[in-house]
Write a structure and sequence with these properties.
The protein is built from 33 helices and four strands. It is an all-alpha fold. Strands 1-2 form a two-stranded parallel ribbon. A hairpin with a 2-residue loop joins strand 3 and strand 4. Helix 11 runs antiparallel to helix 12 and helix 25 crosses helix 29. It is globular.
Length: 788
């Protein structure tokens, strides 16, 4: 017995896995495949040109050492990264599970071998004129080989254990957690590529001047509606798998996952600021938040889905995954075939069919290494959901149909990439390629395999946790996470709002009157004050709604609270923006009162109108959560709205507001109040915790808020205004960048859809802790948390 246990015992004491446990077959396949890729990729596009041997030797002896500017630094880094996995994998194959002597032998063997391979590849590239040969490539590849060997010495044992853990992981919790962190690691690596890093202030200044730093959300989107939709949708969907997998793991609450994803998105945008060729854009943080919300919604529904009790499943449950797969197939065709300008003439098609004989990866060589990686991920990630949905449908079907559906799923995954490439043959602006089809197959089959393994794994609830309580917003862990976030959340929101205000003042995409809001001599001070206005504007009405007040005292409390609300709004704006900007909204003073009293009172009344509607939206959501509220909680806001109409519309000293309203003015004012109420209600639904059964209703109501609010806005704004010698609609006046070139009305409504979603998220970010914490920030019983 002692002899049988001696080898594993010695391996454990030495800190290395036993030799029999090392996945040598996997390491061997990976090492051989990657070495083949390195050699082949170094010679693409395989345009061989024969040279005399002495000429080749003379050219190789005279290869130059190139001076690398910031723009070409990415090529040097690409060669460096190319050889790191090469020596790392071969070190694992030769020395994993062995002794220290074995690692030393592998090191002494691989370092000169990697250097010799690099020189051999550079020498061979002389016979392929399309390739560039330089001493820089040899140095970068040799250094990459050294780094790969060193990384194995530092992390090789942990890497082998990590590989083994994938084989041992049997529960859904373990698999989902590992997949989430693996995907997130890949996301981080991709977002810092091509690693043309710089901390030179001059380079960073040029990057900012060239428009690769955007602090204004949605300001750098493509002009076309199709391109804009594709960019926003892809940026949202790329973050959904992180939240979905972490939700399936069940080890974190909703807020913890959302916070992790948003903070990671912020960190990536900050890191990209130091990657010269990448764009840092605040929009990516917002799309990451939306993608995380989407992943959380899907993950919550899957994780809380009850297992079948033995009875027959509804037919829609059986065919739902196949219907979703069909819809995703339509999305794939839309992405790869847009704008559908097919040509059917025979000569054109015959000429395009030559792509079948093209050298593999030739089209990837034409662009940069980063573009090639982007195209590979683009193909694989678009086809992976199709495979995952088909796996869900096959495993959820009856046994008698499972074999047939499996065959159909495999044929679909094989035929779809082929169909995409054949369709691109008839599209003049597309480049069909057999390699694209290969990556489509890999993505589809990978998605099928991963989802199949997740669904077949057994469920496991972490010890000491109730998964149902954890997955819903009314559980105690959720309340505690909000409790701790109540203090840092305002700082995070105010910091982001300050940057957004400062970026807005420097963005040519915004109307000029918004760009002039900051004081020229103290722009950052104005940005900070405007951020405080935004936070106060969104938070104070929610706090008023949560305050307890019996009977008629609710009128007095709300009136006094909204007066204070408007006074502080005016005080902050008066210190933040030029005086002319204040008069643009409420007009010039006419009563000759001393100081700023007249303008201040007008601003107090004007601010009280959206404040009262924010209050009504908060009370509506609290009532839906089960809080018993009397009628006075709602009717108390009516006098404020009537006062607002009397001051803003009936006795307006300026036409800047009333001229934008449709006729008759009372109905237009009511329609605009309804528009604001629907908008604020959607934000309150996002910010407030709701019982578990209300999750679907929440997202449906938020989605419906856009068309409903747009309808009220349409009836509240004037369709035709004659001013400045031009005729335009009120929506054009509000959402055009300047007064000389009004945007088309259709484009204005597209911009409004973006603004609507942005306002929903911006208000919800502020209101979330005030709905979930507020005056009772303590450990709550889950049953009481719903009615709070």
């Amino acid at each position: 017995m002692g002899q049988l246990q001696s080898a594993p015992w010695r391996a454990a004491m030495s800190g290395r896995p036993p030799s029999s446990a090392v996945p040598r077959r996997l390491l061997a396949v990976a090492a051989v495949v990657y070495t083949t890729f390195v050699i082949y990729g170094s010679l693409v596009p395989l345009h061989f040109q024969a040279l005399p041997w002495d000429v080749a030797l003379a050219r190789f002896a005279a290869i130059p050492f190139l001076h690398l500017a910031i723009g070409s630094r990415a090529d040097w880094v690409a060669n460096l990264l190319l050889f790191i996995p090469l020596t790392y994998l071969w070190m694992g194959l030769i020395s994993a599970g062995g002794s220290r002597v074995g690692r030393v032998f592998a090191t002494l063997l691989l370092i000169p071998t990697a250097t010799a391979l690099s020189m051999a590849l550079e020498f061979t590239q002389i016979f392929f004129p399309a390739r560039t040969v330089s001493q820089n490539d040899v140095m970068a590849e040799t250094l990459g080989g050294l780094i790969g060997v060193g990384l194995w010495w530092l992390t090789g044992r942990r890497f082998v254990v990590w590989l083994q853990s994938w084989q041992r992981a049997q529960s859904r919790t373990e698999l989902a957690e590992r997949l989430a962190w693996t995907y997130l690691a890949g996301l981080v690596v991709y977002n810092v590529l091509p690693l043309d890093l710089t901390i030179n202030p001059i380079d960073l200044f040029h990057k900012w001047r060239e428009g690769r730093l955007n602090l204004l959300p949605f300001a750098s989107l493509p002009a076309g509606a199709g391109a804009m939709t594709y960019e926003l949708a892809s940026d949202v969907l790329i973050w959904a798998p992180v939240a979905l997998l972490l939700r399936l793991a069940g080890t974190r609450s909703v807020l913890q996952i959302w916070r992790l994803s948003v903070l990671m998105a912020c960190a990536l945008e900050a890191m990209q600021f130091f990657v010269y060729s990448r764009f840092s854009d605040v929009t990516d943080v917002l799309t990451a938040a939306l993608g995380t919300a989407l992943g959380l919604w899907v993950g919550t529904r899957v994780a809380t889905r009850k297992a079948p009790t033995g009875g027959p499943l509804p037919s829609w449950r059986l065919w739902l995954p196949f219907g979703l797969a069909l819809g995703w197939l339509a999305v794939i065709l839309l992405v790869f075939w847009f704008p559908f300008d097919f040509r059917s003439d025979g000569a054109f098609i015959r000429d395009r069919l030559g792509f079948v004989f093209r050298v593999p990866f030739e089209t990837y060589y034409i662009g940069s290494e980063f573009r090639a990686i982007t195209e590979v991920l683009h193909k694989m990630l678009l086809f992976a959901p199709l495979g995952g949905l088909l796996a869900w449908g096959v495993l959820g079907s009856a046994w008698r149909w499972r074999g047939l559906l499996f065959v159909v799923a495999m044929l679909t995954l094989i035929a779809t990439p082929m169909l995409v490439e054949l369709g691109q043959v008839m599209l003049p602006n597309k480049v069909p390629d057999t390699v694209d089809g290969l990556f489509g197959w890999l993505g589809g089959f990978s998605g099928y395999g991963l989802v199949r393994r997740l669904l077949r794994a057994r469920r496991r609830i972490p010890a000491g946790q109730d998964l149902t309580d954890q997955l819903h917003n009314d559980g105690a862990p959720q309340v505690l996470s909000v409790e701790t976030g109540f203090f840092w959340q305002p700082l995070f929101v105010l910091g982001g709002a300050t940057l957004a205000c400062w970026g807005a003042a420097h963005s040519p995409q915004l109307p000029y009157n918004l760009r002039e809001l900051l004081q020229p001599q103290s722009a950052w001070r104005s940005a900070v004050l405007l951020a405080l206005v935004y936070y106060w504007f969104a938070a104070w009405p929610v706090w008023l709604a949560r305050r307890r007040a019996p009977g008629l005292s609710r009128f007095a409390q709300l009136s006094f609270g909204l007066a204070l609300y408007g006074a502080l709004v005016f005080g902050l704006l008066n210190a933040a923006v030029p005086e002319e900007s204040l008069h643009d909204m409420v007009g010039f003073p006419l009563l000759h009162w001393p100081g700023q009293w007249e303008v201040g009172l007008r601003w107090m009344v004007l601010a009280a109108v959206p404040g009262a509607l924010l209050y009504l939206a908060a009370q509506t959501v609290r009532r839906w959560r089960g809080k018993h509220l009397g009628a006075l909680h709602y009717w108390a806001a009516l006098p404020v709205l009537l006062l607002g109409y009397w001051v803003i519309v009936a006795h307006a000293a300026t036409d800047n507001l009333t001229e934008l309203m449709a006729a008759p003015l009372p109905l237009a004012f009511a329609a605009l109040c309804a528009w604001l109420y629907v908008l604020f209600l959607g934000a309150a639904l996002l910010a407030s915790p709701l019982p578990a059964g209300w999750q679907r209703s929440r997202w449906l109501a938020v989605a419906l808020s856009l068309p409903i609010a747009a309808g009220f806005l349409y009836f509240g704004l004037a369709e035709r205004i004659d001013k400045y010698g031009q005729q335009f609609a009120a929506i054009q006046f509000l959402l055009s960048t300047d007064r000389q070139h009004y945007a088309p009305i259709a484009l204005c409504w597209q911009r409004y859809a973006i603004v609507h979603g942005l306002v929903l998220v911006a208000l919800a970010l502020v209101q979330m802790p005030w709905f979930r914490g507020g005056q009772d920030r303590r450990r709550l019983d889950p049953r009481r948390a719903i009615n709070h």
